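Predict the assembly for these two chains.
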Amino acid sequence: MGEVGLNAYLMVGAVLFVCGVVCMATKRNGIGILMGVELVLNGANVNFVAFSRYTPLGLDGQTTALFVVVLAAAEAAVALAIALNFYNNHLTIDVDSGNELHG
Amino acid sequence: MIEQLLFWVFAVLACGGAIAVVATQNVVRMAFWLVVSLGSVAALFFLLQADFLGAAQLLIYVGGTVVLLVFGVMLTASGPYTQIRTSPAEVIVGAAVGMLLLFVLVSSIGKVDWDEIADRLPATPAAPVNVDAAQWQKAGDQPAGSSASQVALGVQEQQGRTVRQLGLSFLGLRPDRNLVEGGAHGLAPGYLLPFEIISIHLLVVLIGAAYLARAKRRVVSEESPELS
């Protein structure tokens, strides 16, 4: 077992990204889609911090990752509000029923 | 050695949690596996010497966002065991597409020589965290002298301790760039403007979310009950 390098962390980030994309594409529950988005953002964050550690980028990667964390929190709040409105109007959270494009 | 062991444990936990999020149909169990995955990612951040970022990940993601998602599950569930099924054909197609995407990503990661690309970047101080520790030591309690111990302590202090530097970079200062080279790069810009923009953005987003999610009262008037 050699030294843990940059590639190992990039592999973890790739797995998280792919799981998030598949989760977004296959789940029919609105909350599940939000969880997929969180997984994608976490995969990107792992890449940012790994590059910040193993390349001379220094602190830039960690700062960008902090911005991504804050943006993910804001996105979750707004998307959850939209999901609650959707549930109020359709009495279900199944995204396949949202095919009317009104109210 | 212990670092490699911890890396493999937390990498397997993070990837397994993510795969379990995809594979589970129950939403509450998905939230649990998401907690496992995000917590393991926070541990990976600690292993990458990003101590403040790992703590922020634990606080904001695991403590905030997932709780928000669980509240969303509670407020939108129409039955106690609500499961919205995905058809098996879609599962097979999704798994195949995911495998292909993972293969593309992994093969392209393996092809690139990251060290050669990192050499092309403009040279920056190799150990930026050392500056903080050295100046702290110079002004601090430890008596001067014994440079060997200071070097050893600098190597020790390189593990983590990014809180002050992150805070200063959000204030528009870059102590890791500006103090080391003596301004050879000119003044490196900090992150004051993005910090302000994201602060206003977060405020606007929270006000908008509260406006969107407010309880709508059905107006039932006496004279026109057919409207409402």
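Residues 126-157 of chain B have pLDDT under 50 and may be disordered. Chain B touches chain A through 85 residues (CB under 8 Å).
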